[in-house]
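#data-curation
PF: Archiving a pair of folding outputs for the training set. Convention for this channel: one message per protein, sequence first, structure tokens after, nothing in between. First:
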Amino acid sequence: MTRGRVVGIDFGTKRVGIAIADPMRMFSQPVGTYSPDEALLVLDRINEENWISSLVVGWPLEENGHAGRATFRVQQYVNRLKKRYKRAEIVLQDERYSTQSAKEMIKASARPSLKKTGRARIDTAAAGVILQEYLEDNQS
């Protein structure tokens, strides 16, 4: 039996960044940024094509490590994911520094302009950072 795919999610009320792990679960690959409802349709397509075994969702803890208002909003989306993808494991991954890491990665890339691509590019990259950290923490 083949292993399912691992998908990273950076949830925001306006935009959801999505990244997917390669089949060997070594690298995170960007998928894109979508509205919360569009993201579910993209996840449906990924699930139909590859079977999602794990959804790694960025968990926005406050600087002190405690849950706040943002975690409540993410939990509501996680509840939707649980109902929709019953076979998938839901993993909450600390995302406190993912956006900053994503910005630094973009600035270091061959196409460093953040002005042209805006938040959508950052959100996709943040999903990739969240997923990559999970993959590195869970090498098997």
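PF: Second:
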Amino acid sequence: MSEQIYNVLFLCTGNSARSILAESILNHDFDDRFKGYSAGSFPMGRVHPVALGVLNSLGHDTSYFRSKSWDEFSGSNTPQLDFVFTVCDNASQETCPVWVGHPMTAHWGIPDPAAVEGSNAEQYAAFQSAYRMMRSRISLFASLPLSSLDPISLKNQLKEIGTREYPSEQEA
């Protein structure tokens, strides 16, 4: 008997960096139990090239990524979502569409690597840091005993994952 596959949507405003990283991590590392998606409230229309570079360097398939609107996930012909996570502060403050299936939601804000100005190395380092932070949160999420947690306990666990502090580059 196979375990349930949970559908997870990661939201950000532009759907060009953080939400793309999260979708890729979930589908690359935990595809036996989860199907990840990403979208934005105001999609940029393109995926940030440094996000694609970081993912490619780590062996992720990036051929299917595109920047898309969250409206693609709010209709009746869309996957029934089990979880929706906002990964940027702007998206967490917006009024989201009504999601099919009334998924569990949480905010997992990550600093925007696309906002980093500077050298290519500094930008790449910001994306690597965002990747590590997101992978840590997703790993904690994937380790939860989802089928045995009551809804209140699960909601509390998801919220706690989003508030965890991570060591800075200098401390790591």
